[in-house]
Amino acid sequence: MKKFFAALPALILYAGSSPAQDVHAVAKADTAVILIGGHLHIDLSAEFPPGVRIEFPQIPDTIGKLEVVAKTPVDTTTNPGNNRVREHSVLTITCFDSGYYALPPFRFTYSIKQDTTKYIAETEPLLITVMTVPVDTTQAIKDIKKPLDAPFSWKEALPYILAGIAFILAAWGLYLFFKRKKRKINAPIPQRPSRPPHEIALEMLRELEKEKLWQHGHTKLYHSRLADTVRIYIRQVFEVNAMELTTEETLEQLKANALEAECRTRLEYLLQQADLVKFAKMSPLPDENDKSMKNAYFFIENTCAALRQDITANEGKEAGG
User: Fold this and answer.
1) Strands 126-131 and 33-35
2) Could you tell me the end-to-end alpha-carbon distance of the chain, in angstroms, rounded to an integer?
3) How much is the average pLDDT of 44-62?
4) What is the pLDDT of residue 258?
5) What domains, with CATH codes, occur in the chain?
6) What sign does the CA torsion over 244, 247, 248, 251 have?
7) Please, which contacts does 308-312 make with residues 24 or more away whose CB atoms are closer than 8 Å?
8) Which residues are paired to 90 by β-bridges?
9) Number of alpha helices (DSSP H) and beta strands (DSSP E) in the chain
10) Predicted TM-score (pTM) of this structure
11) Residue 93 CB burial class (10 angstroms; 0-12, 13-18, ≥19)
12) In sequence order, what DSSP letters do the residues of 249-293 get, joined into one string?
């Protein structure tokens, strides 16, 4: 017990000098008086020894009628002389109402290593005075000063004049250019004699064969282009809009053209096969792909020959008459 009481003053002295008692929070304002809309800068800082973990206060956008317009990031420095750490940030505050305003203390929360207790350090409150612009009421009220007339200078106007002339010349040049171009476009262009539909269709079939689409796995594209080639030929020769009609509607429209039974049968097979590939996702056998191509050739070549015979017969009747 004697040893304990002998060491008690030292313990009290150590507790008084512990980190919990050595944290200082300070708020310094660069001025205490500002005009309405003016700015006040507050240096908010905390000094503490190593081993202290401090939490900077959360600064709201407004403190009463005072508005915080800017906050600098928290900066941390260490004084090599006393090994103390300092964290600080600068707040920019303004106000748009005159009067006296008390800025409450800023509270720093901190803790010490191996100690779960939360401590608080506060700054001193600040008194801020916001003043209006002084007005001399002894003077008469005056009108707002009128705008001053700037003297005219040709030197200043010359660039605008030159720019206007350049714009007019450019517009005139564009007008002449498009006028000449329009004349060339409107000039009659000699037209090449149109090729017979069957020649175009047969050429498209030969090109399709060379591409070997179904051999490379593009069966759907192969049958789609094959059917489209035949439908375009039907539209040009028989004046049936086969591109917009279904297979059944196309065959119904062609009844009036007295197709041979073989031509009709092969056309029906070709179009139905294409529909099954496109819409039912059918995968034809290789000989079925070849059969569709042969049917297309047969239909175009035979209908073309039949049309030639009809034309020749009609020309003979007209000559005999």
Assistant:
1) parallel
2) 153
3) 90
4) 73
5) 16-131 (2.60.40), 197-315 (no CATH)
6) positive
7) none
8) 43
9) 7, 12
10) 0.40
11) buried
12) HHHHHGGGGT--HHHHHHHHHHHHHHHHHHHS-----HHHHHHHH
